[in-house]
Write a structure and sequence with these properties.
This protein is α+β, with helices and mostly antiparallel strands. Helix content is 23%, strand content 39%. The chain has a six-stranded antiparallel β-sheet with strand order 1-2-3-4-5-6, covered by helices on one side. β4 (56-63) and β5 form a beta hairpin. The protein is globular and about 40 Å long.
Amino acid sequence: MGAVEIFEREVYSIAAHFAYIQRVSTLDKTANAIKLRLYVTSGCFVQIYANVRKKITSYALVLGENRVYGRDCDGGIWHRHPYENPETHDFSPEGSREISLKEFLIEVQQILEREGLL
């Protein structure tokens, strides 16, 4: 089993522990990259992209058609797209720390609860 398949299995396994995630769908998969969606509602989902060869990971909370929160890693360097201003890049100590998918989904849950969406 390759790195992409292992990553995919981990996403499905982690997502199963979060009651607010209704379903998981693999949108695209190649030998080196994968894109998945974790659906909260029909108009709200978490999109995950990973390229194992280029060491790129992207987690995004999408509401409607817009990313409203995200965390990305490109070549080992992490940054955050804060909920208050998702078009910006936060390289502060908190914004640039490495984050697991589980941690990101906890942050998403907190945002959705705070905004009354859960």
